[in-house]
UniProtKB/TrEMBL annotation, chain A:
Positions of region (Disordered): 215-234
PANTHER family: FANCONI ANEMIA GROUP F PROTEIN (PTHR14449:SF2), FANCONI ANEMIA GROUP F PROTEIN FANCF (PTHR14449)
Organism: Ceratotherium simum simum
Signal peptide region: none
Protein's name according to its UniProt entry: Fanconi anemia group F protein
Superkingdom, natural source: Eukaryota
InterPro entries registered for this protein in UniProt: FANCF (IPR035428), FANCF_C_sf (IPR038505)
Listed Pfam families: FANCF
TrEMBL record, chain B:
The gene coding this protein: LOC101393499
InterPro entries: FANCC
One Pfam family, short name: Fanconi_C
Lineage: Eukaryota, Metazoa, Chordata, Craniata, Vertebrata
Protein name per its UniProtKB record: Fanconi anemia group C protein homolog
Keyword Transmembrane appears in the UniProt entry: no
Cellular location(s): Nucleus
Subunit structure, interactors included: Belongs to the multisubunit FA complex composed of FANCA, FANCB, FANCC, FANCE, FANCF, FANCG, FANCL/PHF9 and FANCM. This complex may also include HSP70.
Length: 359, 560
């Protein structure tokens, strides 16, 4: 086992080097050896797919390594991050070497010979490296063509293919982190927050929270039988992380569309309480302009009345438990403000009237 | 070889021009034209590779100075990269361009350029959205890791859109415009064989939308049908039914494909025909009357064109067996009246014919035969009413259920009683449909006489092959028998051999005497095959007869 783990470590290093200028020192023999290692690990992946204990040990090592290599640091690079990745480590290595201009002529020639031996090579065609690379090319064209001609952004966030894919990847990674790291996935999420564009990230988080629990994992990510089902995992960590980071929670509630937030709140009661709390804060910042007869923000970056109204309107369209909670909250805030039934005194009274629920 | 390479050169010019016009296949016209040429172009690429792999890279650039340009153009056409094995062959071609021992900077530059193309094919079409790339990379994923998942989700999302479209076509809010469905079907043409696309192909085939006219592109149907016939994809029968209902040329092609398979497989036993038949899904699909009618129409033409070839007759019979079996399975949700399948036949006749002999006690078979015979005779001899077609239509209907004619011949031999007129007529009609009533009466008399002689032999203590031949009238060379009537008598004789107690001992000798020509040997083999097949279907218990038939068949097959 230890030798296997060492092997894994060495290959991870090779993989890391494969995208650097160091490959200029590689000769044909090095390329051959690197591909042999990849083949061996692919074999390990096939052989131990059903051994939960070995899988776990390998996965832990991979995770540790990925973190050490700065996988979750500022200069993150894709690498071997989970057991499934072993199944395609040869493809990953091949693509990196092919794209690395530093690879010398002789080494490159040897690489091509090994990747594309031509027709008539024994073995199930689909399963050879050549076959899998060709299928990758075919799938890439397919994605491209669908994006050109057929696909469009879905109005439902979690049904949009790009969002859904990113959400599935995020959940898969969270599950792995949850299994491998004692500290939980909060660190990974915070470090991602620092590095990736926020709007997309928030949308992905929302999509992940909205995916149906049984949502199938991306192809190749399926767990073989014999491993515990972890369908719900990942989402509680996300919720916990959001609630623990008030700045991100505020951005989440502010930047995402009202409809999406209402759905998220409907699915995750803890978040719905946080959301309502933020809505109260925002509402309290509004002042009534007597001359205009409208509610205006005290600060320019505050939430305007229309937006606040839109958010409550979406919440009130949600199925019963959430809708009732929201209305009860509004009523109680109205009561705190004196329970007046006249416009312009309490923002809650006016909201209730606007929503058609004023009593 | 020289001719070959000349052909390749002229093809080369043709495709170079095509590729220049196609560019990146971004317009409707270029996509359409690319799709039309995908298989041919793949073949050209294959030939190109065969030529290139024999040369070193210097010779390649000498022989085809613009090869780099040609392959580069190919690399930028997503339709070609998406089709079947084209991307693989293209990669092989590019590998041939690599100079193993670059001598100067020009060689190295070319190598580097080729590498660029290779890496483009494998990593082309990166997302134009930077944030997605950054996010996935931040999670530690490379595009190769998530492309399959992304493609699956894209397909699923389109599938659910199509389904929704199908269900609430009038809800304009989330409606998929017909134009979009159409262009989607075009994009699928090169991709129908990619397993990831199966759900989308299925949804396109089964979701109709609410347009009065067909929105899917005909080439899409063609591509799906082709892939299905070549077994490159497997689709549920319901989807194939949709395909054939929506695109008639595909159904016709499926029928032709079946015929081709039957013709190219040398000797067809009914079991094998049945395998081909079931494999084609045609009998199952024919549960939909519109499909049945077209399939049947093609059988009719095949029968007319071949002048009633026994192979075609056997195929129609097997088709009908399989069709009725499929219909039986579907019975619970049977939506169509039998009349819709046989609109020109008399319904009461169809009802009798459709009854499986197995479902009728053997003792009552003669009644069914009588009934069938009378109904048919009524139609055939009724000159006034043309609504059910002439004798040919009656006969065409009857040959679907040809098993009844075989039963009639068998029944005749199994009873010593005077043969009923109805059975004699049925046999005469079935074997010689074109005869006039006078000729038919003559045949009936002849058959009756042969029957009488055979029955006498049944009681003779020492049966000989010569006696049997004499009884059949074979030796009366003075009056050569018309061949079809000869066939009927031969079949009677063979039945006699299989069933009469003394028949088994002399069977081989009689057959040797009978089989003057290869044609007759073949005919006898077909009869035995058909008889065994029928017995299997009827679950007939006749171990001795069965054993003999099987042995005789094996011996005859060894001869022809």
């Amino acid at each position: 086992m230890e030798s296997l783990l060492q092997h894994l470590e060495r290959f991870s290093e090779v993989l890391a080097v494969s995208r650097t200028p160091h490959v200029s020192t590689w000769d044909p023999a090095t390329v051959r050896r690197a591909l042999q290692w990849a083949r061996y690990l692919r074999h390990v992946h096939r052989r131990f797919g059903r051994h939960a204990r070995i899988r776990m040990a390998l996965e832990r090592r991979l995770q540790k390594q990925w973190r050490q290599e700065g996988g979750s640091g500022p200069a993150a690079a894709p690498g071997l991050t989970n057991f499934q990745a072993l199944g395609r480590c040869d493809v990953l290595l091949s693509l990196r070497l092919l794209q690395n201009r530093a690879l010398g002529e002789a080494a490159c020639h040897s690489l091509l010979q090994q990747l594309f031996p031509g027709p008539g090579v024994p073995g199930a065609d689909e399963d050879t490296l050549q076959g899998r690379l060709a299928r990758l090319a075919r799938r890439r064209s397919a994605v491209h063509m669908l994006r050109l001609c057929g696909s469009r952004e879905s109005p439902v966030l979690q049904e949009d293919a790009l969002m859904k894919t990113q959400a599935e990847l995020l959940l898969a990674r969270l599950r792995e982190e949850g299994r491998a790291a004692a500290a939980g996935p909060g660190g990974l999420l915070s470090s991602l927050w620092e590095r990736v564009p926020h709007d997309n990230f928030l949308k992905v988080v929302a999509a992940a929270l909205l995916l149906p629990p049984s949502s199938p994992r991306p192809r190749g990510e399926e767990l073989e039988p014999g491993t515990p089902s972890t369908a719900g995992e990942g989402r509680p960590e996300l919720v916990r992380w959001l609630l623990g980071r008030s700045d991100i929670m505020a951005a989440f509630c502010r930047r995402l569309p009202a409809g999406v937030l209402a759905s998220v709140a409907g699915r995750h009661p803890e978040l719905s309480r946080g959301y309502l709390g933020l809505l109260t804060d925002w509402g309290r910042q509004l002042r009534y302009d007597l001359q205009q007869g409208v509610w205006v923000g005290a600060e320019p970056q505050g939430v305007p009345w229309e937006e606040l109204y839109g958010r409550f309107q979406s919440l009130c369209r949600a199925p019963p438990p959430l809708k009732d909670e929201v209305l009860t909250a509004l009523e109680s805030w109205k009561a705190q403000d004196g329970g007046f039934q006249v416009r312009g005194l309490s923002v809650w009274t006016d909201l209730l009237l606007a929503l058609g629920s004023g009593t | 070889m020289a001719q070959n390479s000349a052909g390749l050169s002229s093809d080369y010019q043709f495709w170079m021009q095509k590729l220049s016009v196609w560019d990146q296949a971004s317009t409707l016209e270029t996509q359409q034209d690319t799709c039309l040429h995908l298989p041919q172009f793949q073949e050209f690429l294959r030939q190109m590779y065969e030529a290139l792999k024999e040369m070193d890279s210097n010779t390649v650039t000498e022989r085809f100075p613009t090869i780099g340009q040609l392959l580069a153009k190919t690399c930028w056409n997503p339709f070609i990269l998406a089709y079947d094995e084209s991307q693989k062959i293209l990669i092989w071609c590019l590998c041939c361009l690599i100079n193993k021992e670059p001598r100067n900077s020009g060689d190295s530059k070319l190598n580097s350029w080729t590498r660029g193309l290779l890496s483009h094919i494998l990593s082309a079409f990166r997302f134009d959205m930077k944030e997605v790339g950054l996010f996935t990379q931040g999670l530690g994923y490379a595009p190769a890791d998530y492309y399959p998942g992304l493609l699956k989700n894209m397909v699923l999302s389109l599938v659910s859109e199509l389904r929704e479209n199908h269900l609430n076509g009038f809800n304009t809010q989330r409606r998929m415009a017909p134009e979009r469905v159409r262009s989607l079907s075009r994009v699928c043409v090169p991709l129908v064989t990619l397993p990831d696309f199966e759900p989308l192909v299925l949804a396109l085939l089964t979701c109709h939308g609410h347009e009065p006219q067909e929105v899917l592109w005909p080439e899409f149907f063609g591509a799906v049908n082709e892939a299905f016939l070549l077994k490159k994809i497997s689709l549920p029968t319901s989807a194939i039914v949709c395909l054939w209902l929506r695109h008639l040329p595909s159904l016709e092609k499926a029928m032709l494909h079946l015929f081709e398979k039957l013709i190219s497989s040398e000797r067809n036993f009914l079991r094998r025909i049945e395998c081909f038949m079931k494999d084609s899904l045609l009998p199952e699909a024919a549960c939909h009357p519109a499909i049945f009618r077209i399939v049947d129409e093609m059988f009719r033409y095949a029968l007319l064109e071949t002048d009633g070839a026994p192979e075609v007759l056997a195929t129609i019979q097997v088709f009908t067996w399989c069709f009725l079996e499929a219909l039986g399975k579907e019975k619970k949700q049977l939506k169509f009246a039998l009349k819709t399948y046989f609109p020109y036949a008399s319904p009461s006749l169809v009802m009798v014919l459709l009854q499986h002999p197995k479902d009728i006690p053997q003792g009552l078979w003669h009644q069914s035969l009588k009934h069938i015979s009378e109904k048919l005779r009524e139609r055939v001899e009724d000159q006034t009413d043309g609504s059910y077609g002439g004798p040919f239509e009656c006969w065409f209907l009857f040959v679907h259920f040809g098993g009844w004619a075989d039963i009639a011949a068998e029944q005749l031999l199994m009873s010593e009683a005077e043969p009923p007129e109805a059975v004699l007529w049925l046999l005469a009609f079935s074997y010689r449909p074109r005869d006039g009533s006078q000729q038919r009466a003559q045949t009936m008399v002849e058959v009756k006489a042969v029957h009488g002689r055979l029955m006498k032999l049944l009681r003779s203590p020492a049966l000989s092959a010569r006696d049997l031949q004499a009884a059949a009238g074979e030796s009366q060379a003075a009056a050569p028998r018309p061949s079809a009537c000869g066939q009927l008598i031969r079949h009677l004789l063979l039945n006699f051999l299989l069933w009469a107690p003394g028949g088994h001992a002399i069977a081989r000798e009689v057959i040797t005497l009978m089989a003057h020509t290869d044609e007759i040997t073949h005919e006898i083999a077909s009869f035995l095959d058909q008889t065994l097949y029928r017995w299997d279907h009827l679950c007939m218990e006749a171990p001795a007869s069965r054993k003999l038939a099987r042995e005789l068949l094996a011996e005859l097959r060894g001869q022809v």
